[in-house]
Amino acid sequence: MLIVMKADATEGQVKDVVRVIEGLGYKAHPMPGASRTAIGITGNQTAVDASHFENLAGVAEAVRVSKPYKLVTLDLRAEKTIVRVGDAEIGGEELAIIAGPCAVESRNQAFAVAEAVRRSGARFFRGGAFKPRTSPYAFQGLGEEGLKILAEIRDAYGLKIVTEALDESGVDLVERYGDVIQIGARSMQNFTLLRRVGKSRLPVLLKRGLSATLDEWLLAAEYIMSEGNYQVVLCERGIRTFAQHTRNTLDLAAIPAVRRISHLPVLVDPSHGTGKNYMVTPLARAGVAVGADGLIVEVHDQPDQALSDGAQALTLEQYEQLVSEVRAIHEVIAPAAVT
Ligand code: PEP
Ligand code: MN
Q: What is the value of pTM for the model shown?
């Protein structure tokens, strides 16, 4: 159930409704919007009785939610969510660009890429310290040492750090050194991990699972939000199909499809979405053109030496060119993307 407050409802009236929800043993999720506040209710095993709320001061209506998700939807919040990361944001007017290597491999490598990322005007730096590799013998990341390098990059360049956590102890560490917790495609349905990041004070970048439907992906976001963390950014990174000309099939239709259902910002990852260097820029352009709030892109100072995902890494020059192109596209379509 969803409680829609009147436009002129006071803060005190919202608090009173929250108290009634909690008194029934449920969890309340107040979402202030531009024109009114709505309060989502979770934690109920059976239908919530609307009569508890209908006569409370400030309540406009109690709406039964028929969809499987309650908190990610436009019903709860009609305006787009802007996820704020310090003085940077994702989902606002500016195109968010998150760039960096697949993995932090060394201080020199990470700084060489970060310097170019800073120069491009991007606000976010990516780099994995914990890598989810298909083979246990492949490079697994530098762990905490990698996170320390990322923290140095934040201090040196003012870039916000986006980095993956594979498990709960990894979340503790990312909370210490990073700014945004990435949940990778392979972890999208690790429900204990989702609940853990739902309790974090840091925003979460939630990648779409390798073969996840839209509903499964949005329900994964719902896990995070149901724990009280509403700072969730979705990321389309390609799905498994029969196609063999790409590593994954980048599902660009997912962007408008998500928009129609959810207020959460959504990014495109043309790097994992294609797996091939020469396809990254064309698909990045397309991602921005379909209205993504930003991109997450892999860049390496020496792609042929990369310890992971070298085939899809852009050179520093290619990356700089990509940024200027996607900014131009965003300028053209921005007014439409905001609606
Ligand atoms: C990554 O961003 O390097 C990564 C492992 O991505 P994904 O989870 O989308 O495969
Ligand atoms: Mn990668």
A: 0.97
